[in-house]
Amino acid sequence: MAETLGQRIRRLRLESHPSLTLGAVAENVLSVGLVSKVERDLVSPSLETLRHLAARLGVSPGALLDGGMVDEAALARGALDAARARLLLGDPAAAAAAAAHMATLLTAASGGRNGSAGQLRARLLALVAEARFGAGDPGLAAHAAAEAAALLPAQTTSATLSAPTGAGGRVPAPSWDLTRAEVAWALGLLERRRGRLEEAERTWTDGLACIEASGAAHPWWGYLRASLLYELGGLHEARGEVAVARDLVARAASIAAGVAQTTGPALALLAEWDRESAAPGEMAAYAAPAAACVLAVTAAAERMVRRLTQEAARLERIAASPPASRPPVAGVSHSRHLR
Asked: Domain HTH cro/C1-type, which positions (predicted)?
């Protein structure tokens, strides 16, 4: 039988010279209870926990992953959630660093191109691009976005997301739809910055269609959907299509309001993990990222609702005014970012 991750960690701990106690491995960073749970395969360690354990055992995180039966996808999803929470809470540099590191680790462990590993790596790189863009580094953002787009199956780049299926063409599996939406969001931000507004509109429209076709219920997808609608509204306003912009922003505000109401379930999830953790508050070491991401999304959605309500009212006033009295569209900003 193959050695599990927990068994490998325990073996390496006991084979150390001198052998390490649970307390010595935990140091002042982790609790002894958490290390014990990891060794018994009762919990999957987070990326931060894995790094600490590897350092104490004198091996690389990749060596632990290669030698054990860790749920690599769960580890990557946790890192993605944690990075997204950091981005939404206003720390794009930390978000980019964490997501980029996990993308590299995922590649080293599995190649990171096919199946769930490929999707997770594309999502991580799309987040890196968004975070770099938010941090004011469009060059690195463009590089990460290009890497993410290269991982998508055929006919899913920004130029072909909406291309009809034809002779020799193929439609990507539905499971890639949400990944495509995140990559489209990042690509659209860069296209808009370059002044390629038609390309940005096409890319964001495709991303929006991917989310709506999936029927995904997680608050993040609602937040991203509202973000896409808002940005599309800005592009339509820039063309003088105020009524269309008003309707798009109103839709975005309605969706964001629904997302903002999911705070309660997220708090319940945090409380549940807290009860099951090895020590009070310890769930942050291995299980909190998913709940933290939901909380960060709902907080961002609350801010978005306030902003979009004001935007919808402004556009309503403009739409109701005589065309001659409307402000020039040249004054519309194309650089707004919702973070």
From this structure: 9-64
